[in-house]
Amino acid sequence: MSEAIKPTGKTKNDMTKKHFIAIAAAIKLSVEQINNTYPLGVGADHKHVFALAGIRTTAVNTANTFAYANPRFDRARFLAACGIN
C-alpha cells in the first residue's frame, strides 16, 4: 500500500464529499478514455495494462491521502467510484 501524502492546510477537513465525488469522476473518465483508446485484443494490450496501472496508482495514492485527511473517508467506495477494481 502506498503511503498517504499528508495534506497541508489550515485544517485536515478542508475537502467535502462533493470534492471527493468530483475527483473520483475525473479519475473514472480517465479509466474510460484508456479503455476506449487501447481496447483489449487489438494488439495494444500492454499499453492498456500500463496506462491503467498508472491511473490505479494515482487513485490509490489519492484515496490514501483523503483517508489521512478524513477518518470517515471510505477508500473502497472511492476506488469503486473511480472505476478501479
Give the amount of beta strand, in percent. Answer: under 5%
Euclidean distance between termini CA atoms: 15 Å
Q: Tell me the number of helical segments per DSSP (H or I, 4 or more residues long).
A: 3
Mean pLDDT: 83
* Helix/strand order, N-terminal first: HHH
Radius of gyration: 14 Å
Helix content: 55-70%
The outline comes out as: elongated
Largest sheet: none
Q: Structural class of the secondary elements?
A: mainly alpha
Number of strand elements = 0
Poorly predicted segments: none
Describe the structure.
By secondary structure, the protein is mostly helical. It has a domain at 25-81. The chain has three helices and no strands. It has helices at 17-37, 45-69, 75-81. α1 packs antiparallel against α2 (45-69). The protein is elongated. The two termini are 15 Å apart. 12% of the residues are buried. The mean pLDDT is 83.
Question: What's a concise summary of this model?
Answer:
The chain is an all-alpha fold and about 80 residues long. Helix content is about 60%, strand content about 0%.
What key phrases describe this protein's structure?
single chain, 85 residues, mainly alpha
Reconstruct the topology from this structure.
Blueprint: H1 17-37, H2 45-69, H3 75-81
Helix pairs in contact: 1-2
